[in-house]
Amino acid sequence: MPHPIGGYGTQVTNTPRSFLLSPDTANWEVGVTVSSAARDSANTPTTTLRAGLVMGIITSSKKFAQYDNSASDGSEVARGILKHQVKLLDDEGTATDGDGVLVLSAFVDEDQLIGLDSAGRSDLAHILFNDEVHTGS
To answer: CA 104 to CA 87: how far, in whole Å?
Structure first.
């Protein structure tokens, strides 16, 4: 199991969070364990999950993986958005679970999210999307 204190266990990189439109103090976030089986299929390598990836939870393991509306393991329900990049390979290149931060409630730019579809958007009831807010006259 990954160590919850930064600097130990799997690396969590602080990458730009361009999908967040609200200040950090306005967001609801939680630390989670990301499954070593999770993948960011549009990234190279796929074992590096980018900030903004929509995540679901695998029911049997209680670990998070990429949201997939066609899955049947629990990850077919979008639960939140990965706040920072997470690398799932250790220094020897072995797949390992990672430590991540999941954004559960925030004001976000939908165009910056990875893997979001209409069903996932419906699942994310605590997320406010930029097209839902009138910002001009």
So the answer is: 21
Token reading at 43: 């990234």
Question: What tokens were used for 78?
Answer: 């979008």
Tell whether 74 is covered by a domain.
yes
CA 81 to chain centre: 4
Determine the residue type at 40. D
Return d(Cα 86, Cα 101) in angstroms, integer: 9
List Cα–Cα distances, 14 to 7, 58, 71, 82, in angstroms: 12, 25, 29, 11
pLDDT of residue 2: 45
Please determine, for residue 107, whether its predicted confidence score (pLDDT) is greater than 60: yes
DSSP string, 60-116: TTTEEEE--TT-SSSTTS--EEE-SEEE-B-TTS-B--EEEEEEEEEEE-GGG-BS-
Torsion angle, alpha carbons of 92, 94, 97, 101, to 10: 50
Mean pLDDT of 37-58: 96
CATH of residue 128's domain is 2.40.300.10
> Could you list the residue range(s) of the whole structural domain that residue 65 is in?
21-132
Split at pLDDT 50, 70, 90, the class of 35 is very high
